[in-house]
Design a protein that fits this description.
The chain is an all-alpha fold. It has helices at 3-15, 18-25, 40-47, 49-69, 80-96, 110-120, 122-139, 142-161, 166-181, 183-191.
Length: 203
């Protein structure tokens, strides 16, 4: 398999809009409900925890599976980890700007990024996910858990792999991207207006 084919297929995988599909099956336009975001958190808020859990897992898998599968089939002299990272980034990009939604805004990339890093660095990601769950249950803020997780993961990779590790570098870039996509959430947190986990219905 050519690298460009693997990256393109990874992008297509990330572009599958599971949140939008779940909303359509329930007769709900998630762009007009809750936060208006096509991510698992908004599915939890509007459609409930069962569908939200399924969407979260699906969004994570569409990041993890390309990283697991495609690099081993790529014919290249480069280290397979390079192509694994490239496939992961492509999947995240697809989630944020899905081609199946004409490149309109998708989700914020957190669940798909989690799947990517579960495939690339499972042990640090398990610790990071534990931090995410603890923060969400303690505060009710999924956005805060996502952003703190984006800090924890690069820190763990820095400690375990060192500053020159490609995984560490990519984790920093993705962390910055997570903060960028959550900039409106940061504003709401500062004003005390952020949505809390567990509340259903439109905002």
């Amino acid at each position: 398999m050519e690298p460009i084919v693997a990256v393109a297929l990874s992008y297509l995988s990330g572009s599958i809009p599971f949140a939008a599909m779940a909303g359509k099956l329930r007769g709900v336009d998630l762009r007009k409900q809750g936060s208006g975001n096509l991510g698992a958190t908004n599915v939890f808020r509007v459609l409930g925890w069962k569908i939200g859990t399924l969407v979260f897992l699906a969004d994570a898998l569409k990041g993890a599976l390309p990283v697991f599968y495609f690099p081993r089939h790529i014919v290249s002299a480069r280290d397979p980890i390079v192509w694994a990272i490239a496939c992961g980034i492509a999947a995240i990009a697809g989630h944020v700007r899905p081609i199946f939604l004409r490149l309109r805004r998708g989700g914020k990339g957190v669940a798909t990024a989690a799947g990517v890093f579960f495939a690339l660095a499972p042990i640090p990601m398990v610790v990071t996910f534990a931090v995410f769950v603890a923060v969400v249950f303690a505060t009710g803020y999924v956005s805060l858990g996502s952003m703190l997780s984006a800090i924890v993961l690069p820190t763990l990779l820095l400690i375990t792999l060192g500053p020159r590790s490609p995984l560490f570098v990519v984790s920093v870039i993705i962390a910055l991207f997570v903060f960028w996509t959550h900039r409106s959430n940061i504003g709401r947190l500062r004003r005390g207006e952020e949505h809390r986990f567990g509340k259903r219905g439109s905002a």
